[in-house]
């Protein structure tokens, strides 16, 4: 166990999108400076970070200089090339650690990991050939969903298979990428737990939020969720189990399906998570600060919920609602500083706050 | 009335201290970029701003380039040289406007302004000579406090006069600077109102907070204050009167003494104010965002208080308490990224939050 980082220390963040942006602000609030590493020009996070390096993930010199300039390295997304991580970790600790990335970068590895922990998932199968897909479909049934093992997010790299006859076409669309088939499970709702584990092994969870998706993208998270008290403890215990198994340091998002027979794990994300944005206006310490605290070796903060919140993403031309939202009572706006509005692009979010006393 | 600034617009901020820093974060949250102008190297605000210009207040070329790079100019402190403002306003609007600066830069002008509005202040007198000081002391009585008319803050430029015989020495210490003498008034407590006025003339106030000072520096602000409901309306009406008289745009801090006979205005600050930091954890829209909304021509946001908060400044070696504070439940930390801890220097603050439901 190393000493906690002192104010003035530098936090390196891989990725300069909105999550890196909100991590930068949280780092500053604790007296740290943020240094963003991002291949794309003018990243949103760069607008609120002390330093930004614009370089590709295979630029060894830039990676070394970046790593040497910071005290600890973290990331806003899990699909960082392995070779990049290999180079960086020669210089500075990467938190959360490599095991969390190894597991979450690959859907099959992740599902095997969860099953080995004794956690429930939807039925799934490793798909390598049309024969294995046909075999899996006959076992799992339709509809089912074929997903690339790697690099999927916000519904990308996914194909719904409605009937067994669609198997060959679906597989062809993946162009040979390794895949998993997942069965559909009837669920009452989807919730997520934003969990954190400190460098000392302490674990804490934010109140589970209830998620609604549209077109594979999160639209809305509501706290409190409709989870029963018993299910809330199940969710928190399950998240703790995952964190401990990974010897995790930082914030982790766990998406869960709530079914009649219990909770199924949909997926895990080794980072701050869109479904945890409500914490910015519902807690003394939000998920971004909680993550920075953990990777800085600080004690985890007080994530107790003090308000009811509905978080809604502003996607693409949802930005047209801005004038109305700006004047709406109880609304906290969080925009990401992205220059261009594009369909499906996350431009910001709003937290609609209701004091717990008003319920 | 001009159109509201669109996301992507740039906010110019004069001064790079903690107020500029928190204004920058608020600007980013609304999708704006911040550009800091600050003569000192490595300003705290620069760590979270998209751009920083390091140049002196009389560097005409730097001021022009700064002004041309932004859409509107604001400031974190009121003592900006008049010549600087003259140069800047040739290029871009300065909000809050010049009248607010003219009034608040000079204690005598400010007190005359308040009195002309029909507001109560402590007794005061213009001091130019020893004879005028002696005359004022005989009228106002002792103890009294001799203050420079300009450039005072956090108790600097102030001299307490306990007995008439100390008059000559006190005056000599001011070395000929124009001064005012202020009488002490017995007050129950000091409160402040953080008020805002939009470009459209709309006015809103945050709940008044109760202040405690030590050595001339604010130590603690508590909301709710002990003000009666009637006095709260008095405070809010009075703040609105000041805002309207100045045709003000932005956030203004009004410090008030609560006495048996009513409210006296101690001083006004044409900017976000230390006693409004509690709003960061008590409201959907805090004073920093409210200020940015106003100067950007946006509707004012919802500043309704949803929690009880006690704000405490971390001054100098208060920073030694950091490990304990980091682990304290209900505490939100806000550090300013200042490299060096010095006695009397504001290093950060904490907001201790209590849900309104817990009262």
Automatic annotation (TrEMBL), chains A, B:
SUPFAM superfamilies noted in UniProt: Glutathione synthetase ATP-binding domain-like, PreATP-grasp domain, Rudiment single hybrid motif
Residues involved in ATP binding: 107, 147, 152-158, 182-185, 190, 213, 266-267
A Gene Ontology BP annotation from the UniProt entry: 'de novo' IMP biosynthetic process
Reactions performed catalytically: 5-amino-1-(5-phospho-beta-D-ribosyl)imidazole + hydrogencarbonate + ATP = 5-carboxyamino-1-(5-phospho-D-ribosyl)imidazole + ADP + phosphate + 2 H(+)
GO MF annotation terms: 5-(carboxyamino)imidazole ribonucleotide synthase activity; ATP binding; metal ion binding; phosphoribosylaminoimidazole carboxylase activity
Pathway(s) the chain acts in: Purine metabolism; IMP biosynthesis via de novo pathway; 5-amino-1-(5-phospho-D-ribosyl)imidazole-4-carboxylate from 5-amino-1-(5-phospho-D-ribosyl)imidazole (N5-CAIR route): step 1/2
Annotated Gene Ontology cellular component terms: cytosol
Catalytic EC class: ligase
Entries under InterPro entries matching the protein: ATP-grasp, ATP-grasp_carboxylate-amine, ATP_grasp_subdomain_1, PreATP-grasp_dom_sf, PurK, PurK_C, PurT/PurK_preATP-grasp, Rudment_hybrid_motif
Residue ranges crossing the lipid bilayer per the database entry: none
UniProt domain ATP-grasp: residue ranges: 111-296
Known EC number: 6.3.4.18
Keywords from the UniProt entry: ATP-binding, Ligase, Nucleotide-binding, Purine biosynthesis
Family in the record: Belongs to the PurK/PurT family.
Subunit structure of this chain's protein: Homodimer.
NCBIfam families membership: PRK06019.1-1 (NF004675), PRK06019.1-2 (NF004676), PRK06019.1-5 (NF004679), purK (TIGR01161)
Task of the protein: Catalyzes the ATP-dependent conversion of 5-aminoimidazole ribonucleotide (AIR) and HCO(3)- to N5-carboxyaminoimidazole ribonucleotide (N5-CAIR). Catalyzes the ATP-dependent conversion of 5-aminoimidazole ribonucleotide (AIR) and HCO(3)(-) to N5-carboxyaminoimidazole ribonucleotide (N5-CAIR).
HAMAP family listed in its UniProt record: PurK
Protein known as: N5-carboxyaminoimidazole ribonucleotide synthase
Taxonomic source organism: Pontibaca methylaminivorans
